[in-house]
Amino acid sequence: MATLQFIGAARQVTGSCHLIKTDTSTILLDCGMFQGSAKTEDLNAKPFPFNPHEIDAVVLSHAHIDHSGLLPKLSKDGFTGTVYSTLATHDLIDLMLKDSAHLAEKDVEWQNKRRRRAGKSLIEPLYSIDDVEALLSQRHAIPYGEKLNITSDIDICFREAGHILGSAIVEIFINDQGKQKKLVFSGDLGNDNQALLRDPETIEDADVLLLESTYGDRLHRSLPDTLEEFEQALNNAALDGGNVLIPAFSVGRTQEILYYLGKLYRAGKLKQRQVFLDSPMAITASDIYRRHTHLFNEEDSAAFDVAIKKDWTEWLPILRCTRSTDESMEINRIVSGAIIIAGNGMCTGGRIVHHLKNQLWRSKTDVIIVGFQVNGSTGRALVDGAEHVNILGNDIAVKARIHTLGGLSAHADQKQLLDWAGNFKKPRPELYLVHGELDQMLELQNKFHERLGWHANIPSAKDEVEI
Q: What CA–CA distance (Å, rounded) separates 456 from 463?
């Protein structure tokens, strides 16, 4: 008898991890990091609620850290199996996990300085660069649409999810006592409005469906309205002469933003004369996007595809990529009237926090939020209208104008989730909502009942069900 246990992203957005056990195999769907408040992030240091030595394989839906970030810890703690992903995800996790290890080591170094002064015992990072290198040697890449046997009784197949480059809907085929059972994991489903990537593939049959619910309680603004709001915000900022800060996830949101800025520039509608991409990881991720243009939505991005074959500045000539810390610091010292794109997307770390510290209290500053903000994050506080936020230990007044562009989200909204799931034929699969906050899940659960007469289960962490 095959079972499914919900380890992470159960009634919360981050920490995606699901455990599947059969009579002879044990695999994980994702092994993600918890992100948000300090209390939430403390979960990352806790022991896994399973034995890493017993995991035969990990099937990775995509490269975002809340889906991949604990893989090196898993390997460090005894996992010796294979991590299966798409080809683009294979490339991206090299970048993202090394960056994660670097940030963890820097954070622990800073904390240990304070602990020494306080006479406390020192702490260690979750994992090191060496742990990441060990994990990366366990990767195996699979093209979209190719069915592969990964254990004696489990086959997998990746389908396009349209969320970020390489993101996948995962089909799991389990041979259980002479019968085949099929589990479908949506991963993170993409917003149909994305310019660069293809829409999520349609799937029609399954016995069990795990469906993300990040935006289960809302609808995105239309893309034309969103782009008009984006352009208006940029124009107003240009009139004031202040900087525009865009906290962006290095993989996905950054590349979409560069695409739209390039369109405005080429149409003569971009008033700013400088755009800074102030994130070494986003710069490298953008180069990886250039290597995988065959995955782009050709209908919407043909001109873009041609332009970036050489370099992103072919598409957006006023773009300047700042890799070094000195270059980043220089932006805050001398630059005004510019657009500054920096990580991370939830404003909980990275270079964006330094820009916010220096500019959030200025009334001429504009901050444009383009991605989901988890509870407990600085980005969520800004979206919710906080008048003060704590940044790097400093109380900062929020005088800047805050814009939230939900239409540029990389996640499907409520209608898109319902439409995609509505393609499953009757008898419909047993449905479980994951990767969402409880309020969003409850609203989506209600909509499934009203619109489709389909009961959506909302599991808690550690719940276990039969497949």
A: 15
Query: Nearest-CA neighbor of 109 among 125, 120, 98, 97?
Result: 125
Could you tell me which residue, 373 or 132, shows the higher pLDDT?
132
Q: What is the CATH number of the domain that holds 371?
A: 3.40.50.10890
The Cα 265–Cα 227 span in angstroms is 14
Cα–Cα distance between 62 and 160 in angstroms, integer? 11
Cis before residue 149, ω within 30 degrees of 0?
no
SS3 content of the chain, % helix, strand, coil (to 5): 35, 20, 40
Q: Is the pLDDT of residue 302 over 80?
A: no
What letter represents residue 110's amino acid? Answer: W
Number of domains in the chain: 2
Angle in degrees, CA 335, 261, 92, rounded to 5: 95
Domain that holds residue 450: 3-218+410-466
Same domain, 398 and 420: no
In DSSP notation, 205-247 reads --SEEEEE-TBTT--PPPHHHHHHHHHHHHHHHHHHT--EEEE
Please, how many CA atoms are within 13 Å of residue 30, restricted to the half-sphere of its CB? 34
pLDDT of residue 300: 66
Q: Which amino acid is at 321?
A: C
